[in-house]
Amino acid sequence: MRDIERxxxxxxxxxxxxxxxxxxxLIEEVExxxxxxxxxxxxxxxxxxxxxxxxxxxxxxxxDSVRYAKEIEFMQLEQGNLSLTEYATRFKHLARxxxxxxxEVWRCRKFEFGLKQELxxxxxxxxxxxxxxxxxxxxxxxxxxxxxxxxxxxxxxPSTWSCAQVIGDTWQ
Length: 172
Hints:
Blueprint: H1 2-11, H2 15-25, H3 28-44, H4 50-61, H5 64-76, H6 84-95, H7 104-113, H8 117-123, H9 131-151, H10 163-171
């Protein structure tokens, strides 16, 4: 739906042509759905317009129950085992379904409080209130934390062996 509306905007499509172009784009099941829906609308005396098409399409393929479930998923979203990139992508996707007004500050706070504890401790005190900047800083922090884990010597590894142990083990 968004893609079609972007095309309409880019091509400055006239309102009376939008429905025809949209119907042309329908495939398989959705095409058959529209044929039946159009017949039902005609029977009820409703006009087959782009606006009516959008309403019917969203009712059929994206009902309120699904939108509500997505909003709840957004409200409960936490990073968990996701990488920061995966978390940010999921966050942005689900944020579209949030029905309340979302200020930039609220969006940043919601994102921060869903972060893993180790990232939260570093990122929250920065008080970043620009979402893109917040995500980028959090990615840097995650990257630094991951690289510091890799740089730590392994317990019992070569850095803790004595020369005598290595020489003794080699010669035995």
